[in-house]
Amino acid sequence: MPTTTASRRREQAKFEYNAFLALCPTRQLLDSLSDKWVCLILAALADGPLRYSDLARQIAGVSQKMLTQSLRSLERDGLLIRTVTASVPVRVDYELTALGESLMPVVRAVKIWAETHMDEVLAARAAYDGEG
Amino acid sequence: MPTTTASRRREQAKFEYNAFLALCPTRQLLDSLSDKWVCLILAALADGPLRYSDLARQIAGVSQKMLTQSLRSLERDGLLIRTVTASVPVRVDYELTALGESLMPVVRAVKIWAETHMDEVLAARAAYDGEG
DNA sequence: CTGTATCCTGTTCGATACTG
DNA sequence: CAGTATCGAACAGGATACAG
């Protein structure tokens, strides 16, 4: 059997797997959560609605661009709602939806594991880097 | 009060926040998990040890470079162990550590939420995109 | 078999400036 | 106040070739 066939089969498998991943719900969720700021926004909104500028102040490290972009993404996914109050100056509030709140236990699970075990991870890293 | 002072204060806050984030265990964990392949590797190893080529076959979409890179990262974090058997040809097995296994419930929590709610997210996306 | 090294492409993201 | 638009540097990540 020629090599070309085997390599073609591999490419085919890769293609199918990538198509599968594109549809895989877990991967899609992970893609959203992996955004650097998404979890921080969710956590900030867990205590109640906040205005744009409140978020910008609480999550001090984020750029305007990324904050807006992440908020849009979360809004699009139905995890939060954006309420514009047409006053002068305009006022925009962000609030978790029920769907967004249902995600919080997952975020908290991540947080709890991190706070419980991250020192072990850091120790492992130090040991690994030490050995060189 | 001159504007420069306010802007300097903002920069200072941003700097401090970024320093805080760099130390925040949750952020560090999220940074690891957000790697495209890490969760897939963890899931693949949840059922037992696998060889490099087994992983490459199961996670068909990954490039050699990223697979190796992700495995090294997980090894460094103490989540899996890499065992080299010096035969010809050489054989390398990867296996979750206790620490790695302790992370699995978190990964599963993400998976369960995704499988339960991702259709709502997709519906929200469709609605959002439809409105334009 | 299990990688490492290199090149090269697309994407991400911060900074900056501008708008309703 | 709450964004939008644009530019450029930095990085991620795939393809390919090579090595122990």
Indicate the topology.
2 copies of one chain form a homodimer.
Chain A: H1 3-23, H2 25-33, H3 38-45, E1 50-51, H4 52-58, H5 64-76, E2 80-85, E3 91-96, H6 98-131
Antiparallel strand pairs in A: 1-3, 2-3
The structure holds a DNA duplex (20 and 20 nucleotides).
Explain what this protein looks like in three dimensions:
In chain A, 70% of the residues lie in helices and 11% in strands. The first copy, chain A, is built from six helices and three strands. At the A-B interface, α1, α2 and α6 of A face α1, α2 and α6 of B. Chain A binds a DNA duplex (20 and 20 nucleotides) through α4 and α5.
Radius of gyration of chain A: 21 Å
Tell me which protein chains meet in the greatest interface and how many residues each side has. Answer: A-B, 46 and 46 residues
> If you average the pLDDT of chain A, what whole number results?
93
- How many beta-strand segments of chain A? 3
**Strand adjacency order, main sheet of chain A:** 1-3-2
Protein structure class of chain A: mainly alpha
Note the overall shape of chain A: extended
Order of helices and strands of chain A: HHHEHHEEH
Oligomer: homodimer
What share of residues are in beta strands of chain A?
5-15%
- Unreliable parts of chain A: none
Distance, first to last CA of chain A: 43 Å
